[in-house]
Structure formats: structure tokens, C-alpha cells
Amino acid sequence: MTTATSTSTAIGTFTVRPLDPVEDAPVLHRWVTHPKAAFWMMQGARLHDVEREYMAIAASEHHDALLGLLDGEPVFLMERYDPRYVELVGLYEPEPGDVGMHFLVAPSDTPVHGFTRAVITTVMEHLFADPATERVVVEPDVSNTAVHALNEAVGFVPVGEIQKPEKKALLSFCTREQFTKAVAA
User: Fold this and answer.
1) What is the pTM of this model?
2) What is the per-residue pLDDT across 103-137, written as a single tens digit (0 to 9) for each?
3) Which end of the chain offers a freer environment for a tag, N or C, measured as fewer CB atoms within 10 Å?
């Protein structure tokens, strides 16, 4: 189980904590069914579908979900997975220390400049806080150009398109060194 971590930014203090699949389901349900979350592919999910999905993740030894808070308020979801067993099995050759990641920022009617970049930076800091993490792997939809630009801003390098059952994805990697260099720039 992942412990809570904090990152202070100009926007406020981000805290990452383990997700409670039942208690946090109403918040997640609002997020994953929002039109801005189309790439999350849960637009038609009902509350119990969200609970069931995150209960399965909580039960997995190779996948976990965390809730991100800004000054105590939920603002993002992150998932960490072992690509040897989840999401990318047979689609690339994993290396020791690879960690897969998904993140979703809560929809907002009042955008804050730099907010999403602060979120992904917090996510990456959390992942690299584990000394066993050597490289973060992502596989967003090829048409999600906004997240491609955001990934690139924190050091991800695309390596090519892969076909997953649910989408055509852009496989990208970010090493600890690439991340450190990108956020220092």
C-alpha cells in the first residue's frame, strides 16, 4: 500500500493518498463521467461501476489508485501499475524499474494557469520517490494531443504507437534523469 506524500507548489500543497474505492467513488464518478474525461472511457459508468472498477484495482497486487488533494480537497486521480502484468503485457519489452501511470485531473469551470502541469509534476515526483522506479511508462490515446504535450513537458519521450484492445496509444517513457532535467528547465 502506498503512503501519503506531499508536494508544495505556488498553487498550494498537493497530497497524494491511497484511494478508498467506496468512500471516494462518488467524487470519482463525477470526474470519470464528465465530458472532459472522454479519454478515461467511463462516460456511461454508474456509481457502482466506478466502485467495482476501483475495488478490483485495490485488490490487485500490480495496480493501485491514489487520490490527489490540493490543500485537502480532491483534485486528481492517479493510477500506478506494473506494466509486466497490467495494461501493456505483450505490447513492449518492460525493463526493471518500469512503472506505468495514468492520471486524471478533476474537471473545473475555473481553470488555474499551470494547474495540470503542477499535477503531473506531483504525480511524477510521487512515482520517483520510490527508489525502485527507474522509468515511467504511459500509453495515452494517440489523439489526446493535450496530454502528449503535457507529458513531453515533464520529460516523456514517445517511442511509437501501439494497438491496445480499447485504443491506439502513443507509448512514451520518462526516466528519472529526463524528468529531473525537464522540471529544472
Assistant:
1) 0.91
2) 999 988 888 888 999 999 999 999 999 999 999 99
3) N
